[in-house]
């Protein structure tokens, strides 16, 4: 229960055992608490303790005992659960204004570790070249005061075919980093031992780690590689199966743009900025789905990635896509909020199918962000003009 990190993985993965966790935090995405757990349940802290005592998710805490007391009698949840009056009494005694005043009196002073940090001063951050936790991201490289304009998406390759309810944790996981993953290999090459990998969430300040972690969730299923879990895809035209990051970099070196296809509720879950940032850094120009989660759709636009939604009941499955197709979207310079457009899909045998879509740039402001290259570039240009 709880973090579940001390249990041997062999016991989790043997046979068809479904290992579960009960936790009081917000880390209930599949595989987040521990890569070998497949079911995570949110509960209050006392319930986490109760399930830990019971030792099984199959116990009915309303009817079955948590265990046996020192007197040999069964102990039930109702026997140990505090009453509202007991909780209120504890709060009145210990949760006081004086406690908060004392705790926050020197909040900006920090502890000895904070005070020991060496700083160079100045108005800009001196990015440490060897850090694997923070790095200067490339979002503003080559940026000018006038946006360069956008180009049509021509002969793009498909990086992923995903199903319904792809969460932002599927797109940009925050959990542990596998040594065999592109992010794990990057850290190893930079002198970090596996025991010190920490998590994607802890390394979100380093784009080289996070872009390698994009679509690297251990439970994500790319239907271009049926029956396989994890962040893999097929690279075309050779059809080699490889990590999504590795394929994206090969396409980038070849100057090939990328698209993603997905089902309903794409980007559901927490509004994780790296789900959009990582998508952009992999070279994805457009994401085409049956529907979007509201915030992730907006975040994609904010990172210069076009969201499109299928029209007329069309899906990537109804189009019989397999992932070896080439995709072109024309007229992007004339795109407008909610504009109906067509996606040209050329199959490997040369036949062409047209998929009707609608631009999910929904507002004039979002259109401005997109044509500026993203919301950060839009804001930076505004600040520069006002200076």
List the helices and strands and how they pair.
Blueprint: H1 9-13, E1 20-23, E2 39-42, H2 45-54, E3 67-68, E4 74-75, H3 77-80, H4 84-94, H5 97-103, H6 112-115, E5 153-161, H7 168-171, H8 182-189, H9 207-213, E6 232-235, E7 240-243, H10 244-253, E8 258-261, H11 273-281, E9 284-289, H12 294-302, E10 306-310, E11 326-329, E12 340-346, E13 352-359, H13 364-371, H14 375-386
Parallel strand pairs: 1-2, 5-8, 8-9, 9-10
Antiparallel strand pairs: 3-4, 5-11, 6-7, 10-13, 11-12, 12-13
Helix pairs in contact: 8-9, 9-11, 11-12, 13-14
Protein model, in words:
The protein is α/β, with parallel strands linked by helices. Among the domains are: 12-85, no CATH class; 153-172 and 214-386, Alpha-Beta Barrel (Aconitase, domain 4). 28% of the residues lie in helices and 16% in strands. The strands form four sheets. Strands 5-8-9-10-13-12-11 form a seven-stranded mixed β-barrel. Helix 8 packs antiparallel against helix 9. 32% of the residues are buried.
Task: Please provide a brief summary of the model.
By secondary structure, this protein is an alpha/beta fold.
